[in-house]
Structures are given as C-alpha cells and as structure tokens.
Amino acid sequence: MKNSADTVNSVGTREVRPAGSGGVGDERRSAGRASSDVAATPPATAGPVPGDAAAPTPATAGPAPGDAATPTPATNGISPGALRRGPIPLHHQVYLELRAALDAGRWSAGDRLPTERELSESFGCSLITVRRALDELRRERRIERTPGRGTFVTAPRLERDLTALTSFTNEMRERGLDSQTRVVSATTAEASPEVAEALAVEPGAQIFVIERVRSVGGRPLLLEQVHLPTSRFPDLAGADLERGSLYELLARSYGARPVRGQETIEPVLPTAREAELLGQSPRRPALLIELVAYASDDAPVEYCRAIVHGDRARYRVDARGPRLDALQTGP
Q1: Domain enclosing residue 72, as ranges
Q2: Is 0.85 surpassed by the pTM of this model?
Q3: Are 189 and 202 spatial neighbours (Cβ–Cβ below 8 Å)?
Q4: CA 257 to CA 14: how far, in whole Å?
Q5: Phi, psi of 109 (to 5 degrees)
Q6: Domain identity same for 285 and 197
Q7: Pick from 235, 256, 238, 239: nearest CA to 247
Q8: How far is CA 174 from the centre of its chain?
Q9: CATH code: domain of residue 182
C-alpha cells in the first residue's frame, strides 16, 4: 500500500464518457469429528430404575442427519429459519439469515446488533458458530466489531459507475441522495510538471486550484483537488463553488462542457491531513482517482485528483466486447 502522494506499478485505467452519451472452499467433514459448528443436541434421558414408582421419561434422541436443529425462540426481533445439518455449514446459514435481515432493513446504520450470546440462543447454536457468521459479515464490511462495545451495522457503500462522466452534484441528485460540498481552499498556483502535462500547458503556468470535500448524508465521501487553466477559465475565483455543478458552470459561462475523460484508480494510504478531512484513519486504505477531462474540441479542461473514503464507496465497470473475448481465449 502506498501513500496517496506516491504512485504504484499497477494502476487501472478507464476511458469514460458522459452519462447519457453515445471460491467457495471445499468443506471437509468427518463422521466422528465433534464440530463447534453443529447445533447442540440434548442428552438422552435414561428411564427409571425397575421398581420405581415414577413414570418413565422417554429418551431424547439427537436429530438424524438432515433433520432441522431446533432453535431457541427468537429474541431481539430475530426470526431465524431452522438451521439444518447438511452440506451448508451452520455458521454460513446464520450468516445468510443475518445478511437477509440487514438487506431487509431490520437494523439501520449505527445500530448495535444483539450480543453473541443472544444470537446463539436465538439460533440455537454455539457461540463459535455465531462468531464465524459475524466474521463473514465483517469481512464484507456490513458490520464493525468493537471490543468492549459490541457489533454495529455500518453504512452501505455507495456504488458509482466509472464508465460515466458526470458531475458529482448531478449524479447524487439523480440518485435521490442528499449531497453537500465544502470548499476547503480556492486559489491560483503555478502548474507542477505533472499538472502541466495533464492540462497541456507549460510548467509554471497559472492554474486555478479548488479543494473541496464532497459529502453524502452529512458524511465525507471524497476529497477532490480540481485544477483548471486560468487561460481558459478567467475570473473563476468569484464563482459559487459550493452550490451547483462545476461542469454546468464551465459549460454555461465558458462554453467548455467536458464530453469525455480518462481516469486511473489505485489504492493508497491517505496522508494525515487527507484522513482528517475525510474522517477516517490514516492507516485505513483509500482510493486515489485521477481524471483528465476533455471538451468537445479535444482540449483538456480539467485535471482532478480525488481521494475517496475507503469504507464509503465502491466502483463498477461494465465490460463488454473484445475485452471479454480476450479474457476467455487468452493472447
């Protein structure tokens, strides 16, 4: 993992267009093996000693393979289905039940789940079975387990499409999400060699640099640094950069609407300052997305460097055509 100021050898690259434009591991089982992943079977009760007056109590046999393990009555609003011994491990059955409950909205982001003991009693299984199920949800980042405090539901990650070039404001509005923008700084500076190459200007040329925190639902999603050539966008410093779309502003005031772009994406460790602005730990990975956007005259009009909160978003790419054929047939 690199620091966000560093580069890495393997970087994903994607050509984007504006929106609207043209194993499962094997399970080893042993018949004689005692497993913590098996629902507890009550011990058999012996009959009375001959001559005793008490009525005999019939022995309670354990369930035959494939029979349902009898769960303890549900608690905390959980209504689990019967756990069954069979090819699907019990811990995975518990995981599926809990995941379905999360998908159905039984718990909201920030809610605390029932304790391991309560879940164990509700499902009629061992504590180890519950812990393995919770570990699967934690690996998927559906929950967060904090020693001494409990298990909490995490907010779902926002899925974004890498193949669409659109403004953040418009994208969130179209999805019915409440977005906010906070300008951290807006100033002119001299273009570094990297920025100059991206914008096709001379090193040291004047550029306008806007740093903004983009949030959804009041929580930071990404920190972006937008670089624009002042030669093409004069007097931009006086514009309202917190409300409305920057792309709409460029199109309306300067006749330069971005129509295509090239993006690279790579994992990084944010700097301490970036982590503070995003509200995340500097030891947790983030995503670095770099974009060069082009206007209809094929001139670069924007270079954007965005650090995306590692726990708040994921990106989707729809692959089709020759690329899929190449993956299937090889070189």
Answers
A1: 68-153
A2: no
A3: no
A4: 20
A5: -60, 130
A6: yes
A7: 256
A8: 20
A9: 3.40.1410.10
Tracing tokens 């061992």 back to the chain, one arrives at 126
The one-character DSSP state at 48 is P
Handedness of CA 84, 86, 91, 96 (dihedral sign): negative
Kindly state whether residues 303 and 254 are assigned to the same domain: yes
Amino acid found at 320: R
Residues 174 and 230 in one domain: yes
Residues 200 and 293 in one domain: yes
Q: Are residues 305 and 174 in the same domain?
A: yes
From the list 305, 288, 105, the residue with the least C-alpha distance to 199 is 305
Fill in the DSSP letter of residue 88.
S
CB contact at 8 A, 184 and 211: yes
**Beta partners for residue 153, in sequence order:** 143
Torsion of Cα atoms, 159 then 228 then 262 then 295, to 10°: 110
Both tokens of 21, joined, read 């434009």
Residue 259 CA to residue 68 CA, distance in Å, equals 59
- Separation CA 45–CA 56 (nearest Å): 10
Task: Enter the DSSP assignment of 307.
Answer: E
Q: 181 with 249, same domain? A: yes
Q: Are residues 107 and 200 in the same domain?
A: no
Q: Which residue has the tokens 């999805």?
A: 175
Domain count along the chain: 2
Is residue 76 within 8 A of residue 114, CB to CB? The reply is: yes
174 plus 312 within the same structural domain = yes
pLDDT tens, N- to C-terminus, the chain (331 residues): 555 544 333 445 555 555 544 433 443 333 333 344 434 444 444 444 443 444 444 444 444 444 444 444 444 555 555 688 889 999 999 999 999 998 888 988 789 999 999 999 999 999 999 999 999 998 887 888 888 889 998 876 666 666 666 777 667 677 677 788 999 999 999 999 999 999 999 999 999 999 999 998 888 989 999 999 999 999 887 888 888 788 889 999 999 988 899 989 899 999 999 999 999 999 989 989 999 999 999 999 999 999 999 877 777 666 666 655 555 555 5
Q: What is the rounded distance in angstroms from the CA atom of residue 116 to the CA atom of residue 106?
A: 17
Token pair belonging to 231: 């030669």
